[in-house]
Design goal:
single chain; 333 residues; alpha+beta; Chemotaxis protein chec; Surface presentation of antigens (SPOA); 2 domains; four-stranded antiparallel β-sheet; 36% helix; extended; disordered C terminus; flagellar rotation; bacterial flagellum; membrane; flagellum; cell projection
Length: 333
């Protein structure tokens, strides 16, 4: 610990106070020996470190991106989901903070113990269902009057989205989320004891014109077996192992080699008006901007990659690569 250096004037003032009796040296010694007490609330025990909370935040930021992409494709409308906060609090406090009537999805995540709760604001849930049924995505709030058909549709929407949660956790642990039930009243739901510490991840959600929150409640009992993996040290070590694993690099390279891409040889191009195009008849000749003695272009997924020349191999049309394209490209940076 760095020592505080007093100025000469401060030393003189201190000595003067001691000599005049304004300050008692014995009282100073007693105050120094007294233990400083910090208030601790056992009902609000903090069982996760800041490092572990940051790791959970990263995992759910990835989940939010995956969920945004998934719902955008499924609902065919504007969707934006972002992490608003990640907090740890007693389970009872979380239950009191959510509406009396809302959409509660409870799912297991084997091989981990316990269950996870996903609470979705009714405005968001109904906007999703409205889009699935072909509507504009209007959000309404009539949770207490859910019909069997509406319950089935909502269950399927959230059950199908759990694959994204599995993918988000893939770098830490392999889980298999299974939707157990859907409730609308949090008072009838008792997953853990009221004082159990839970991590609550709040997601800001916008679907079309509707907006609200999705809250994911993860009890401590679920995360307890994998708490050591939620540290930065584990992430760094795991990343280094991946980068230094030659077998994994070889497998990734072999997989990339099997990837299919669209390859096209461009004989030439021509500009014409729509009127000229509509007047084309059989036997007409279109003059291209490609000279005979100039190399042709070979494009890979619409990107110009090679200069080529046409030819034949065993009476089949073919092209020969002359050189790699040296023009400007985003991939050259």
């Amino acid at each position: 610990m760095a020592e505080e250096v007093l100025s000469q004037s401060e030393i003189d003032s201190l000595l003067s106070a001691l000599s005049t009796g304004e300050m008692d040296a014995e009282e100073l010694k007693i105050e120094e020996k007294e233990k400083k007490v910090k208030v601790y609330d056992f009902k609000r025990a903090l069982r996760f470190s800041k490092d572990q909370i940051r790791s959970l935040s990263r995992i759910h930021e990835n989940f939010a991106r995956l969920l945004t992409t998934y719902f955008s494709a499924q609902l065919r409308t504007y969707v934006n989901i972002t992490v608003a906060s990640v907090d740890q609090l007693p389970y009872e406090e979380f239950i009191r903070s959510i509406p009396t009537m809302t959409i509660l999805n409870i799912f297991k995540v084997p091989p981990l113990e316990g269950r996870i709760l996903m609470e979705t604001n009714p405005q968001i849930a109904y906007a999703m269902m409205d889009r699935v049924l072909g509507g504009r995505g209007s959000g309404v709030n009539k949770v207490q009057n859910l019909t069997e058909i509406e319950t089935t549709i909502m269950t399927q929407i959230f059950e199908n989205s759990l694959g994204n949660y599995q993918e988000a956790w893939g770098s830490i642990v392999e889980i298999e989320p299974i939707l157990e039930e859907m409730e609308v009243n949090p008072q009838f739901l008792q997953m853990v004891s009221p004082n159990e510490t839970v991590v609550v991840v709040s997601l800001n959600t916008s679907i079309g014109e509707a907006s609200g929150m999705i809250n994911i409640c993860i009890p401590h009992v679920v995360l307890e077996p994998i708490i050591p993996k939620l540290s930065v040290h584990y992430w760094m070590q795991n990343q280094q192992q991946k980068e230094s694993d030659p077998e994994e690099y070889k497998a990734l390279s072999n997989t990339l080699k099997l990837a299919e891409v669209d390859v096209s040889a461009i004989l030439g191009e021509a500009d014409m008006s729509i009127e000229e195009f509509l007047r084309l008849n059989e036997g007409d000749v279109i003059r291209l901007d490609q000279l005979i003695d100039e190399p042709m272009s070979l494009r890979v997924d619409e990107e110009e990659k090679f200069q080529i020349q046409p030819g034949k191999i065993k009476n089949k049309l073919a092209v020969q690569v002359l050189s790699e394209y040296q023009g400007g490209s985003d991939y050259d940076e």
